[in-house]
Amino acid sequence: MSRRFRRGVSALVVGGIAALFAGTVLIGELAAQRPDCCVGVRPVASIYENKLNRMERLLVTGDGQVFAALAQDPLLSRPEVFGSRSELSYRAQRPALGYLTWIASLGQPDGTGAALLLFAALGCGAAAAVGALLLEDRGAAPYWALGILVAGLESINELTPELAAFALFGLGLRLWTRDRRLAGILLLVLAVATRETMLVGVVGVAAWELVEQRGQSGRLARAAPLAVPFAYYAAWAFVLRLRTGAFPTEAAGNRAGMPGAGIVTALRTSPEAGIIVIGSALALALCIAAWALARRDPLTWIATAYLAFAPTMAPVVWGTNAGFSRVLLPLYGFALIAVGGGLAARRRRTTMTVFSVRSQAPTLIP
């Protein structure tokens, strides 16, 4: 059995466990929905205001309703569903899941919830499988990838695409670092189409490339293809401007702000202050550990880019349904993998040192 085959099997096993976990969680949540669960709750998408069935009640508990609504409006012609043209443009800036759900549901509104549930489980499995591959590339145990489930729990609960974006980005990075640049860039673009904040990760990859190649001619040309995901996003934002009459950034004002102001306000006003403290401390600890153990790993640079981005997030991101964990999922996941790889490398060095000392020790021949 080849090493590549064993890696593939390990990744599939880890991914299967993760998908089964996500599916079990979601089926449990679906079964637990009560008719009075959403009384007094104002949905983000107005199509879910009245007479909700069990699946729709699950959607309304999180941002899954956004992608279900987008799947029912593929031409982006109903801004009243989100209250304004700018809000529709903001919500549609991550089009991949909405259109995939539209295709899977055959354009039928009643099928969008089931499609989103399926994609949430598959996205979770894909994220864990890609994490397992990245860990095995670094000589670490693939089961570390199951730690991604902890960071991705809110994404699972809300039927949102962050885990799928993580999987696409991780696989794209793996191809990029193996000089399969075209395929890698295509996957990075798909990751950005799934969740626009993956652009922060692209910045991290670009910074790593420029530092790793410093002193070498052509380093700018080598990193230049990483501008493609930004070009894609700019093009899609222009399409949204044509379709909706607004750029996505026009409704982003309450999601970003002055560095540090958002988390300070959330700590003071949010009932989830304890979760924010734990999440922030964990993010900082993982980044410090990644720099201590794997400073040359591109995953460390990606995690650090998200750590630098985090202070710009607004109170609503920090303090509502642990929303920060969805945005910072790449930080937690990629830093965890970098730390796992760094620890594995340290163990190998220690083992080699011990073996070298033993091999050089004099032996007594009777």
Summarize the structure.
68% of the residues lie in helices and 0% in strands. The chain is mainly α and 366 residues long.
Chart the SSEs and their pairings:
Elements (H helix, E strand, L loop, with lengths): L2 H30 L21 H7 L3 H8 L13 H7 L3 H10 L7 H26 L10 H4 L1 H6 L3 H15 L4 H14 L3 H15 L6 H5 L4 H17 L16 H9 L3 H21 L4 H12 L5 H5 L3 H5 L1 H32 L6
Helix pairs in contact: 1-6, 2-3, 3-5, 4-13, 5-6, 6-9, 6-19, 9-10, 9-19, 10-13, 11-16, 14-15, 15-16, 15-19, 16-19
What is the H-and-E element order?
HHHHHHHHHHHHHHHHHHH
The proportion of residues in beta strands is under 5%
DSSP strand count: 0
Q: What is the distance, rounded to the nearest whole angstrom, between the alpha carbons of the first and last residues? A: 43 Å
Q: Report the radius of gyration as a whole number of Å.
A: 22 Å
- Kindly state the percentage of residues in helix: 55-70%
What's the shape? globular
Low-confidence stretches: none
* Helical segment count: 19
Counting structural domains, the number is 1
Mind summarizing the main beta sheet? none
Structural class: mainly alpha
Look at the structure and give the mean pLDDT. 91
